[in-house]
Amino acid sequence: MHYKAPDNTLHFLDDDSFAHLLPAGSVPITPEEAEALRPQPVPPTPQQQIDTIERDTMMNRAAREALLLLIEREAMREFGVTDINAVRAALYAGNPAYKRVKDIDNQIVALRAKL
Questions:
Q1: Distances from the Cα of 46 to the Cαs of 56, 91, 103, in angstroms?
Q2: Tens-place pLDDT, residues 52-105
Q3: Which of 23, 53, 61, 90, CA to CA, is 20 to 30 A from 114?
Q4: Per-residue DSSP letters for 17-43?
Q5: Chain-centre distance of CA 64, in angstroms?
Q6: Are 101 and 109 within 8 A, CB to CB?
Q7: Rounded Cα distance, 55 and 72, in Å
Q8: Strands, DSSP E only, in the chain?
Q9: What are the strands of the beta sheet with 10-12, ordered from one edge?
Q10: Beta strand pairing call for 10-12 and 27-29
């Protein structure tokens, strides 16, 4: 059974024989009332989201930028192209590894804009 203490803290007892352990003034409440008292999860901040992405992918900003630059420069050298935007578009369309890193980088750029 759910109980609400005078300070609005939520308590739950499987066995009412332990009700004497509740704070003084606690009253039984319905499961719906208990749900309304539960703290709602706080969404992660943009910085926390960035930190999570970088940790999960093991690619911090320096690693992502270095990898993208290396792939772009190599493609420019190999194909003799000087238009970086054309190279980026071609790599994004045809190189799954580049696309993955670029998507992660774009996601983080969007999150940084919220900081």
A1: 15, 28, 16
A2: 999 999 999 999 999 999 999 999 999 999 999 999 999 999 999 999 999 999
A3: 90
A4: GGGGGSPTT-EEE-HHHHHHHSPPPPP
A5: 18
A6: no
A7: 24
A8: 2-4, 10-12, 27-29
A9: 10-12, 2-4, 27-29
A10: unpaired
Reply yes or no on whether the pLDDT at 16 is more than 90: no
Residues 112 and 50: beta-carbon distance below 8 Å: yes
Which residues contact residue 60 at a Cβ distance below 8 angstroms, ignoring those fewer than 6 apart?
A: 54
> How is residue 115 written in tokens?
């900081």
Distance separating alpha carbons of residues 75 and 30, to the nearest angstrom:
65
- Dihedral sign for Cα 92, 93, 98, 102, please: positive
pLDDT class for 112, splitting at 50, 70, 90? very high
